[in-house]
Amino acid sequence: MHFGETRVLTDVDLTIAPGEIHAVLGANGSGKSTLIKILSGYHAPSAGSLLLHGKSLTLPASKKELHDTGVRFVHQDLGLFDNLSVADNLALAVGYEKRGGTIRWSDQYRAAKRDLEAVDLSDVDPWALVSTLGPVEKTLVAIARSLRDLPPGRGVLVLDEPTARLPHGDVESLLTRCRALRTQGVALIYVSHRLDEVFAMADRVTVLRDGSVVLSCALAETSQEEVTSVIVGQAAADAAAPGGALPVRRQRGDSPPVLRLRGISAARVRDVDLDVHPGEIVAISGLIGSGRSELGRIVFGAQRHHTGTVELCGAQFHPTPRSSMGAGIGYVPQDRAQGGFSTFDLAENLMIVNPRGYLRRGMLSPSRSATAALETIEQLQVRPPVPRRLLRELSGGNQQKIVLGKWLRLPLKLLVLDEPTYGVDVGARESIMNTILSHARSGLAVLWLDSDIDLVSKHADRVAVMRQGRIVQQLTGNDITAEQIAAASYAVGQHAAAAAHR
After folding, report:
1. CATH 3.40.50.300 fits 2-239, yes or no
2. What is the rounded CA–CA span in Å between residue 262 and residue 275?
3. What mean pLDDT is predicted for residues 278-305?
4. How far apart are CA 159 and CA 196, in angstroms?
5. Digit-coded pLDDT (tens) for 290-302
6. 87 or 423: which carries more pLDDT confidence?
7. Which of 6, 46, 8, 49 lies closest to 26, judged by CA?
8. Which of 61, 119, 187, 418 might form a disulfide with 65, Cβ 3.0–4.6 angstroms?
9. DSSP labels, 223-281
């Protein structure tokens, strides 16, 4: 499988037996997502074949072919409609129960009850709004919807990080339901980063690295330590490669911290202590669902915390988006769509956090906003450099530069970045990172949340690794390597023991 000149998958073989739970693992960029998109018909492979229940499908297969053959998907974004009932959400998969063109609501209720009972949700009312359900119940409704109309003893269900956004206390409940599907003959492809879950429920494991299969065996034939070693093997080799210059790490100095967190707990964050000093880039790394993104939202005030204190420049601070902006905290969210307005032009997006700065005699000055925008556009090398161009007309990398640039026009004390280079090309990544490094050298405190361990190990001054909502290890100096970050993220074997005693 190629994208342009880049090969992303090479001779990947995957065999799933009926009733088997097959885990697919790998670090970011290993090829997991591409493999799943090929299976879903989204990508057409340059070579290879797909055989389902003895039937060969031409790739890319259509959604109807896949559905009729029994391949179903549950993604991280469950695709449920919160303002509709459970029964309505289930009916959207294969249609409503009708007679003579009229919906038979009593039949619809009974069909929904059968679907819910299949995933052990018999206590959920089919007429309840999805918005009233808990996270596990929502995930199970999505699974029930995907299994609807599936022939007994057949089918392949692909679960893509199903526990990533669940509170940690709810994970086992979902895993129990998933294990029960095995007895119905449904094969599960379980994509995850969490080795403890994989070893608790899967039968086999396949590990991808750099687009190739580097391990495929029964779980009983391997161990968490071996799987971790295989997953991070390339990162370890890169870290040990001779001849590379060591990154320059800034020292925190004697200045008091700009940000101080003590005992912060929320839905997926537990008892977090952290300081960020002026001019320091502190990275929070960890797997999907580790709690790092939630921590960023808490610091900015986009999400409330249950317990603990936040201090800003030595004073207790109660973050809300409004108070954070007023106090000099900027926030670039993981989703670009949440950080910018696609139907606004570049000048409007850049002035949105401080429109008063572009007023003349109480009225917004288009010329003043365009002039200021052009200055930022040139600094960040946004292309094309047209202030009145709509944000949606730019590439992803250039959109991200605008989302970042709007905050850099303010007198910030702290900048919170959540995956600031996700989904951008190499050139845009370098430009964005150079901009962040330049402002850090000028004294800006940066809290950087990212799963790209190679990028983090190259640019961070200090790294805190989160797992299951807790900071399990902090790395400084020469200990900041991709290998160390990955090992702490998976936290198995000796690494888990070391992290527990830090």
Report:
1. yes
2. 9
3. 93
4. 16
5. 899 999 999 999 9
6. 87
7. 8
8. 61
9. -HHHHHHHHTHHHHHHHH-TTPPPPPPPP-TTSPPSEEEEEEE-SS--SEEEEE-TT-E
CA distance 80 to 154: 24
Determine the residue type at 205: V
- Residue ranges of the chain that CATH labels 3.40.50.300: 2-239, 259-500
Residue whose pair of structure tokens reads 């619809």 in the numeric block: 108
Instruction: State the SS3 of 394-440.
Output: CCHHHHHHHHHHHHHCCCCCEEEEECCCCCCCHHHHHHHHHHHHHHH
Which of 116, 77, 106, 111 is CA-nearest to residue 94? 111
* 155 against 232, higher pLDDT: 155
Quote the tokens at residue 453: 């361990």
Tens-digit pLDDT profile for residues 148-177: 877 777 789 999 888 876 766 678 888 888
Report whether pLDDT(248) > 80.
no
What is the CATH topology of the domain spanning 259-500? Rossmann fold (3.40.50)
Q: The tokens of 316 are what?
A: 């207790």
- Answering whether pTM is above 0.85, one says no
For 20, 132, 226, 368, 415, the CA distances from 189, given in Å and listed in that order, are 8, 29, 21, 55, 38
